[in-house]
Amino acid sequence: MTRRSKPNADRPIHRSPGRSRDHRVVYVAVEGEITEVDYLAYVNKELIDDGQITLHVIARANGLKPMETVTKVLDDPDPGDELWVMFDRDEHTGIPQAFSSGRKNDVDVAFSHPSFDLWLLLHFQAFSGSQNGSSKIVHEKLRQYPGYETFGKQGDDKSVKGTRVDSIRGKERTAARNARKLIKDCAFDGCSEAGGHADGCDPLRRDPSTDVWRLLAALKIIDD
Ligand SMILES: [Zn+2]
Questions:
Q1: CA of 209 relative to ligand 1 center, distance in Å
Q2: In 7-92, where do the E strands start and end?
Q3: Residues with Cβ–ion distance below 5 A, ligand 1
Q4: How many angstroms is it from 130 CA to the middle of ligand 1?
Q5: Domain residue spans of the chain
Q6: Residue pLDDT, tens place only, 70-110
Q7: Starting from the edge strand earliest in sequence, which strands make up the sheet with 24-30, in order?
Q8: pLDDT of residue 20
Q9: Residue 59, helix vs strand vs coil
Q10: Is 116 exposed, middle or buried (0-12, 13-18, 19+ CB in 10 A)?
Q11: Residue 77 CA, ligand 1 centroid: distance in Å
Q12: Cα(200) to centroid of ligand 1, in Å?
């Protein structure tokens, strides 16, 4: 069975009244099954203008590997759907392949190195220094902020709800600014704060970095 059933695929599309013709539909397939899903639920509920954009999140219990996020998001898209995937460096293999498949299939990648959790931290502070795929230091720093005291510790499910959402609420621009500052440290010629990482920049060497801000820009939550 496909992810999206299309009973009227051969007929003209009937839009609901008040829905603009240029209403955008954005799919994001995410690697993690808790942290990213909770975060995007917050984005969906509080940050998006849902008169303009419908955001669908695709996740799976026990998570998806980088390449699987691309495969999942490409499962039966409708013309005009905007497709994104979100995955982390962690200790994964197959990241260059996932990027390459994304590029070929018009899927945007919001990649984080070492992990999405860096994006959460950047709501509170700037960060720098290679992490080699480990989120240990990111978590230690994140635990200094309200709601995150046990984040990443044994028994903590790394959910982003309640106080954790209250803590990051309204700090999207700060997070984006801090994420863009990291691009300045990228060794590849052609990457810039203004333009982001260049096409030829090896994602594995973007340590540390997170491109989640690009998704927020695409969703019109922050400026490009
Ligand atoms: Zn770069």
A1: 9
A2: 24-30, 53-58, 82-88
A3: 186, 188, 191, 197, 201
A4: 13
A5: 24-218
A6: 999 999 889 999 999 999 998 888 999 999 999 999 999 99
A7: 53-58, 24-30, 82-88, 107-113, 209-210
A8: 63
A9: coil
A10: buried
A11: 29
A12: 8
